Amino acid sequence: MTATDTPARTGGRRRDVRQLVSYTLVGGSGVLLDLAAFALLYNVLGWHEQLANGVSTSLGITNNFVLNALFTFDRRDRLLLRFVRFYAVGLCGIALTVGLLWLFADRLGIDPNLVKAASLPLVLAVQFLLNRKWSFA
């Protein structure tokens, strides 16, 4: 601890790091669910990649909301409002991924599975910041 650090400030940083780690682990479970559902819907059932993306991402968003509310942010109040906000942030992620799929898969011919997987870190970072400051504030 430096001279400018206070116990409250240090504790706040620990909480921030714990939340980021928890959010990342929860996000990982959502990513696995999202990718598995996308692969099933797109590769096995033959759905269009945009429709498969919307459904698979929605499953991941719902999974992540429940786990983040319980474990990451420990917030159980105003759950409907928080879910609407969380889902709105998730829709931003869907929109970002839709744009990336359109550009890289539809226009440039890159495999949609690779585009989907490559989009996830960017989407995760944007959504953590938005959810922390808005959905679970």
SSE order and pairing:
Blueprint: H1 7-44, H2 49-72, H3 79-107, H4 112-135
Helix pairs in contact: 1-2, 1-4, 2-3, 3-4
* Strand segment count: 0
Shape: elongated
Number of helices: 4
The low-confidence parts are none
Walk me through this protein's architecture.
By secondary structure, this protein is mainly alpha-helical. The two termini are 27 Å apart. The mean pLDDT is 89. It is built from four helices and no strands.
Any key phrases for this structure?
single chain; 137 residues; mainly alpha; elongated
Quick structural gist:
This protein has 137 residues and is an all-alpha fold. 84% of the residues lie in helices and 0% in strands.
